[in-house]
Structure formats: C-alpha cells, structure tokens
Specification:
The chain is an alpha+beta fold and 492 residues long. It contains twelve helices and ten strands. The protein has three domains: 173 residues, Four Helix Bundle (Hemerythrin (Met), subunit A) (Up-down Bundle); 91 residues, Helix Hairpins, CATH 1.10.287; 160 residues, Heat Shock Protein 90 (2-Layer Sandwich), CATH 3.30.565.10. A six-stranded mixed β-sheet has the order 7-8-6-5-2-10. A two-stranded antiparallel sheet has the order 1-4.
C-alpha cells in the first residue's frame, strides 16, 4: 500500500472519534437538561428560604415592638410562629441531604428565638423592663441574629454555586442550540476529515520531489547545495539526516583538501630547508672563523650579528623540518605535573625579567595520560613562550590542571596579555599563520598536531584587552591510576 493510501486510511479513521464525540455530546446534552431542572428547583428553594428569613426577622421585630410599649405585639407573636413554621416546612420539602444540617441549624435558631421571646415577655410583664431589654439585646441581637446571618451566608453560597435565573435562561438557549449544531458538526467532520486527508497526502508529493532533486544534485558532486527541511514529520527527519550527511561529506572533503595542501607544503618546506641548511652552516663557520682573525670591535659586532641571524634561520628551518617530517609517536604513561614542571624549568629567568607572576594549580590525584612526553613538553613550552610574548610589559600567567569530565585531564594556560582579535582567532593553528614579524607560524600548528596525536583537543579563547586562554584536553591512560599532585603554588 502506498504512503498516500495509508494516509487516506489513517485520516479516515481519525474521523471516527469525531463521530463518537458527537454521540457523547448528545448524551451530555440530555444530562444538561436534567441539571437545568435541578437548578430551577434550587432557585425556587432559595426564594422560599428568603421568605423564611423575612418571617424570622419579623418575629424579632415583634419582640422589640412589645418592649417599645406596644401591648398588641405580644398577641401577634404566636401568628409569626405559625408563619415561620409554614415557610420552614415548605423550604425543607425535597431538600438535598447535604443541606439538611443547615435546615436543622435554622430550626434550632428559631426554637431559641421563641424561648428568648418567652423569657423577655415574662420579665417585661413582671415589671423588669430593663432586664427584659438587656436580655433581648444580648440574646437576639448579639447572639442569635449573627448565628442566623452565618447560616444565611452558607445557604446563599450554595445557591450561588448553581448560578442565577439569568444564567439558567442562557444555559437553556445554549443547550438547545448545541443540540442542533452537534448534528451539523458530525456531518461536517466527515467531509472536512476526508478533505484534510487528501490535502495532506497531496502535500507529501512536493517535499518528496524536493528531496529527490537534492539527492540527485548532491550525487552529482555539488556538496554545497542547500537542503531545507520544511516539515517535522518523517520526511522532514529524512531531509535533516540527508543534510547532516552532506555536511559531513563537505567537511571530510575540506579536511582531505587541507591534508593534501599540508603535504605539498611539507614537501616543499623540506626541500627548501635542505637546500638552505648547508650554505647557512658554511656561512656560520666562515663568520666564526673571521671573528677570531679580526680585531676591530665594529667588525666583530657585524660578524656576531651574522652568526645570530644564521642561528635564527636555522631554528626556522628546524621548525620546517619538524612540521614536514615529524618524528614517530612514542606514547608513554606520564603525569601532567612532571611535564609542566619540565616545560617551566627553562623560563624562571625570563619570568623574572618580564615581571610576570606565575600561578600554577594542579588538582590532586589526576589520572596519568598516554602521551609522547617530549612532544607534550614541547607543546607546553610553545604555549608558555607565546604567553610571555603577549605580555612584554609584565602580567599574570596562570596554569591550571584539573579533571575533565571525570575521565580526562584539562590543562589551561591563561595570560593577561593583549588578547587576540576574534577575526583571526580561527586561523591561529593554521600552518605558516603568525602575528609576529619574527615568527614562523608553525608553533601552534605543531602543538595542535601533537595534542591530536595523543587523542586530545586544543582550544583557544581570547578577549581583546583581557588575555588569552589555551585549553588542552587529554584522555586518561587506559586503566591508569590517579597520581597524587603537588599543592598549588606561585612563582614570581
């Protein structure tokens, strides 16, 4: 079955729940009608309770009228009792079980009002008018009326929970309109679902054709062709995977071109180095011989300059040969602390002359690493030398060795020098790229190669005006024990 037919079948099945929802909505509509009827009954009981409240209030007013000197008020009190009993009985008819406790509370308050009224009448009839007045105020106003008000609030709160008459009318109209609309929605859901299924199935054809065209273009060799995933479905995932594969192929091709370029540069550098080294050696020997035979200070100074420049050229030639034909890699288990100390041993005097403060911090129990000790020590030497060149007026050099991810070692060399502009930062490790007039541009390139040979990574971050940090990440030696380290210290 084709993908289009599968989608049509799947979306057709998606319409079925809509039909079930419509049927359930019809059943819910019937229940809403029952809820409306119950709501009407509760509203009617709320109106009945308002009559109860008015009757009980009138009952207390009869007492106050009698205390105010109206003798006929006492004769009206039995009539108010009958009115209150009538409305309470009517209100309690059909009352839900959860409100029976409130009804009993109203009944108890009514009985207490009658008892208080009887005592007030007796006191007043016996001539104790002041006592009757204080009892009425204390019992009716201060105790029973607040209690009745609390019960009233609870009763009306329950009534408000079921809305008001206006809401009842609106719900009735909504329910009726919903009943008519549900059947329309069910019919429309069938048509719209089928139409949406057809549209979505048709829209799959366009992205598939785009992906097929992209495959043809990339297959023809154009790895720079932009592949855009326009959807988040399986076809979009396929397009993103294909774009990732194309990007990996492009990077692999760039690396291959770079390797071929470096190989060509290395061969040329080796030829040039060998062609220059023998004449330079002869020139240096001749300058040294002539220096011993001349006596003038000016001539000797010129010959010393010749020897110094020849030595400088010989150092650059050694870098070229080292880059073009590196020595075989001989890995050994070694401690980071030992190699850092070895690299720093030749910089003590230079640190003092440059007024550079060295701070070194090596974490305790770092694991041993599997490296070529001579090469890694050369890496540290190169990085420290670069850091000192970046601080001709003095500064701070910090070397930190710590665990990296729990199974590796990270060494960070940070200086407080001028920093490196961000536009040239990516090119620092490129062969023959240098920012110094006397540099060969091979120091960092060789350092990066040695670190990568050991399975590590060399990363450089820099902020102009604040300094540069070179971070070396190296994996721990397989099955290596953690070696204790010397405590952190400072060397001025």
């Amino acid at each position: 079955m084709t993908l289009q037919r599968k989608l049509l079948l799947g979306f057709s099945l998606m319409v079925l729940p809509a039909i079930l929802v419509g049927i359930q909505a019809i059943r819910t509509n019937a229940r809403e009608q029952e809820a409306l009827a119950s709501l009407g009954e509760r509203l009617a009981r709320s109106r009945t309770y308002a009559e109860v409240e008015d009757a009980m209030f009138n009952q207390t007013q009869v007492v106050w009228r009698y205390l105010s000197g109206e003798p006929t008020a006492k004769q009206e009190f039995p009539l108010t009792e009958q009115v209150v009993d009538y409305w309470i009985d009517r209100w309690m008819t059909g009352l839900p079980p959860d409100e029976l406790q409130l009804a009993q509370g109203v009944r108890n308050i009514e009985n207490e009002i009658r008892a208080v009224a009887s005592q007030v009448f007796k006191l007043y009839d016996s001539g104790q008018h002041q006592a009757a007045y204080f009892m009425a105020r204390e019992q009716l106003v201060q105790r029973l009326q607040p209690a009745l008000a609390g019960v009233n609030r609870e009763i009306y709160r329950k009534a408000r929970e079921f809305s008001v008459q206006r809401a009842l009318q609106q719900v009735e109209s909504i329910v009726e309109a919903e009943r008519r609309a549900l059947w329309v929605i069910i019919a429309a859901a069938l048509l719209v679902g089928l139409l949406a299924s057809w549209i979505i199935a048709r829209d799959l054809v366009h992205p598939v054709n785009e992906l097929r065209h992209a495959m043809a273009v990339v297959g023809a060799g154009d790895l720079d062709y932009a592949i855009v995933a326009r959807s988040r479905d399986e076809i979009g995932d396929l397009a993103r995977a294909f774009a990732q594969m194309t990007e990996q192929l492009r990077q692999s091709r760039s690396q291959l071109v770079q390797s071929e370029k470096l190989a060509s540069i290395g061969q040329m550098a080796a030829a040039v180095a060998h062609g220059l080294r023998n004449p330079l050696a002869s020139l240096r020997a001749a300058a040294q011989l002539a220096r011993h035979r001349v006596e003038g200070p000016a001539a000797r100074e010129q010959l010393d300059a010749i020897v110094e420049q020849v030595d400088r050229l010989d150092l650059r030639i050694a870098h070229l040969l080292q880059f073009s034909r590196p020595a075989p890699f001989h890995p050994l288990r070694e401690r980071v602390q030992v190699m850092i100390d070895g690299a720093l041993s030749g910089f003590s005097e230079l640190l003092r002359q440059r007024r550079v403060q060295l701070t070194m911090s090596v974490a305790d129990h770092l694991p041993e690493i599997q490296v070529d000790p001579m090469r890694l020590e050369q890496v540290f030497t190169e990085l420290v030398a670069n850091a000192l060149d970046a601080m001709p007026e003095g500064g701070r050099l910090e070397i930190v060795a710590r665990l990296d991810g729990g199974d590796g070692v990270a060494v960070e060399i940070t200086d407080s020098g001028r920093g490196v502009p961000p536009e040239i930062l990516p090119n620092l490790c490129e062969p023959f790229f240098t920012t110094r007039t006397e540099g060969t541009g091979l120091g960092l390139a060789i350092a990066k190669r040695y670190v990568e040979e050991a399975g590590g990574r060399l990363e450089i971050t820099s902020v102009v005006g604040r300094g540069t940090t070179v971070r070396i990440r190296l994996p721990a030696a397989a099955g290596g024990a953690r070696a204790a380290s010397t405590p952190a210290g400072q060397l001025a």
